[in-house]
Write a sequence for this structure.
């Protein structure tokens, strides 16, 4: 009998800062299944197979299959967490604006930064025996503000008993998408207003108030130097203005957009539409050094049953915040 079939599952296996999948991988490494019929499955997926729980496809089981035994019931919170995470990853644009992700175990985190002047950014010649110029890196004065985002799921016994898992997954993924959008709004707020350490975003003025021109994009591009303009965040209004510019309506580019949905982008930058920006605003940034994301653990799921009312309850939450790395790596324009 394979090792994964002998693991005793219980709710006590869930630990702060570690997912059940990670714990199962330590107990039952996937590398032991290379060349077997189970190759390609992670430790959690092997447990689903052990209890014959089908979470997707035409033969998807009902949710009550998780609760057929006490062992299989311990898999339910991890299933919820993975589904929410999948929805968050599908909807998230954070990978396109975040330079690095820092995972912490507590609620207090102080980022570091280097406030470099224009003189600091040039590496000068150093004479023999002379002092080498110093670049100071120090921790910020204020802690990174972390925000907890979550939702409580409440379902009746009847709803869970007859609900197909794949349909329930759609709901969980949508919750993950809501979390992603909220975190995106947090990130944009930090880019514009700073993280509490007097590092708000500098503004670039358009040539003519009330309109956006290609020359304004050039102005933003030059103002970011020596950083690279590789990402542009645009509000709905700014997105419309960008896509209707004469320079953005090249015939070949138009055919590519209409045929594949791939848009021509200003100055080769990755163009992202976000509702976190309102009005006629856009942000140009260097995603390689503008923003740090701080995460306190993964998606947390707590599950409980109210026997007297025959209700199943599960809370889904995650904690994250953002800190600016280099203040000058992002500029905002409002026209």
């Amino acid at each position: 009998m394979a090792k994964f079939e002998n693991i005793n599952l219980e709710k006590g296996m869930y630990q702060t800062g570690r997912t059940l999948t990670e714990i199962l991988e330590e107990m039952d490494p996937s590398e032991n299944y290379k060349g077997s019929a189970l190759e390609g499955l992670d430790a959690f997926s092997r447990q689903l197979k052990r209890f014959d729980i089908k979470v997707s496809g035409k033969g998807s089981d009902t949710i009550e299959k998780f609760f057929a035994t006490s062992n299989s019931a311990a898999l339910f919170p991890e299933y919820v967490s993975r589904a929410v995470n999948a929805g968050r990853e599908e909807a998230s644009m954070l990978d396109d604006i975040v330079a690095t992700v820092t995972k912490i175990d507590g609620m207090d985190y102080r980022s570091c930064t280097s406030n470099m002047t224009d003189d600091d950014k040039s590496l000068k010649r150093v004479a023999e025996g002379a002092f080498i110029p110093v670049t100071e890196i120090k921790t910020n004065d204020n802690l990174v503000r972390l925000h907890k985002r979550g939702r409580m799921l409440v379902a009746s016994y009847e709803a869970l008993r007859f609900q197909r898992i794949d349909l329930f997954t759609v709901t969980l993924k949508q919750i993950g998408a809501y979390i992603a959008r909220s975190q995106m709004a947090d990130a944009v707020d930090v880019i514009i207003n700073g993280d509490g350490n007097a590092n708000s975003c500098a503004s670039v003025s358009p040539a003519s108030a009330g309109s956006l021109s290609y020359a304004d994009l050039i102005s933003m591009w030059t103002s970011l130097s020596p950083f690279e303009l590789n990402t542009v965040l645009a509000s709905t209004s700014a997105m419309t203005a960008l896509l209707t510019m004469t320079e953005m309506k090249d015939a070949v580019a138009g055919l590519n957009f209409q045929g594949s949905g791939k848009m021509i982008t200003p100055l080769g930058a990755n163009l992202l539409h976000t509702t976190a920006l309102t009005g006629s605003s856009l942000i140009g940034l260097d995603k390689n050094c503008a923003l740090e994301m701080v995460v306190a653990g993964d998606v947390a799921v707590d599950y409980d049953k109210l026997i007297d009312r025959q209700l199943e309850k599960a809370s889904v939450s995650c904690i994250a915040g953002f800190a600016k790395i280099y203040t000058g790596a992002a500029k905002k324009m409002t026209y």
Residues 94-115+142-335 form a domain with the phage-related protein like fold fold (CATH 3.90.1690.10). The longest strand covers residues 311-324.
